[in-house]
Specification:
Layout (H helix, E strand, L loop, with lengths): L25 H27 L3 E6 L7 H16 L3 E6 L2 H10 L6 E2 L2 E2 L3 H24 L5 E5 L6 E10 L2 E14 L2 H8 L3 E5 L1 E4 L4 E3 L2 H12 L3 E6 L4 E3 L18 E3 L9 E7 H7 L8 H12 L4 E6 L5 H7 L6 E4 L6
Parallel strand pairs: 1-2, 1-11, 2-8, 5-8, 6-9, 11-15, 14-16
Antiparallel strand pairs: 3-4, 6-7, 9-10, 12-14, 13-14, 15-16
Length: 348
């Protein structure tokens, strides 16, 4: 047996004191620089923490951020950080890939019209089961690993959403797309009670009709309606592009040039396709002019932003959910990311 030394000081793990007159080592300088950079990041967030403390932020969770494991963890961390920082986050989720996968296992093909899932009555039970019974539980569990705050809700619960049947507009003609709903009313009383109790509501985008029928509601649309009803400070929509591009339409080749927008601010991103830059700021009127030129996939997202700011939400954002911690980067940094839509006459 090795004898323990009587002088415990020889067991210390502290670094030896520097020689008299010696400056900090290269490693110490690197550690200090890294610590200072972290401090600068925290200080940069200070005015935004003050501005949004106690405010409600509605986040539409979707796209690649829902299917990549590392991005799922980063998103959950962002939501819990917002809660601990004094904001009141609300998550509204879709579940397109999960619904498509389940329907494929049943031998049913998925089709989309004008960016909306065609939902025949015979597939509505599957959509409802996947959104409320699978995806909602997964998102709640994901967030609760980082803090015991998330509570799952369906749009059916306490009549949060009531809806009526919606048709798609294709080339100026109305097309039946099945049990897809347009939200008529929002009753956020139960959700407000959860927020008052310090919880993070996680809402699946299913709604009940006046006659008891169940509708599949586009999650972007549901998030916008909820943001308006709650008087949210922000609507944040996560997607799989960096934002809205000037001069590039994700669904068309060759690129489609959008109309010139004198007031729009353009930001050149590192990963932007060569045919276009990200529009960092748009007014509601400018976005309304762009809508007919957008690809089918972007229309519901940008319509949601437009509805939100027209409904008195001060800011609506489309962010790249493939970027880890994109929600924190938008809310707590001076430069922000993605595309922000503001009401006409407002200042960013």
């Amino acid at each position: 047996m090795t004898e323990r030394p009587d002088d415990l000081s020889v067991m210390t793990t502290e670094r030896p004191a520097p020689a008299p007159g010696a400056g900090p080592s290269a490693g110490e300088r690197s550690d200090t620089a890294a610590a200072m950079a972290k401090a600068a990041t925290l200080i940069e967030a200070l005015p935004w923490l003050d501005r949004f403390h106690g405010q409600t932020v509605v986040i539409k969770y979707g796209g690649h951020a829902m299917t990549d494991g590392a991005l799922q963890v980063a998103f959950a961390q962002d939501v819990v950080f917002l809660r601990y920082a004094g904001l009141r986050p609300v998550v509204v989720h879709g579940g397109g890939p999960q619904i498509s996968a389940h329907l494929e296992r049943l031998g049913v093909a998925s089709t989309f019209t004008a960016g909306l899932r065609v939902t025949p009555p015979e597939t509505m039970d599957v959509v409802r089961m996947v959104l409320t019974g699978q995806v909602n539980r997964d998102v709640v569990g994901l967030i609760n690993r980082h803090g015991p705050f998330a509570v799952g809700m369906s749009g059916e619960d306490a009549n949060l959403f009531t809806a009526s049947r919606r048709e798609a507009l294709v080339n100026g003609e109305r097309v039946d797309i099945g049990m897809v709903g347009e939200i008529d009313t929002v009753n956020p009383a139960a959700l407000r009670a959860l927020l008052a109790d310090g919880r993070v509501p996680v809402v699946s985008s299913v709604a009940r009709g006046a006659g008891g029928e169940i509708y599949n509601v586009n999650a972007d649309t549901a998030a916008a309606a909820l943001a308006v009803a709650l008087g949210a400070a922000k609507l944040v929509v996560l997607t799989d592009v960096e934002g809205l591009y000037a001069g590039w339409d994700e669904g068309n080749s060759p690129p489609v040039q959008f109309p010139a927008l004198p007031g729009a601010k353009i930001r050149t991103g590192d990963q932007v396709p060569p045919s276009g830059d990200v529009i960092s700021l748009l007014t509601a009127a400018e976005l309304e002019r762009l809508l007919p030129s957008l690809s089918a996939g972007m229309i519901p997202k940008m319509e949601a932003c437009l509805r939100a700011v027209r409904g008195s939400v001060p800011q609506a954002h489309v962010l790249d959910g493939r970027l880890p911690h994109s929600v924190l980067l938008e809310i707590f940094t001076d430069s922000g990311i993605g595309t922000m839509v503001i009401p006409d006459g407002a200042h960013s």
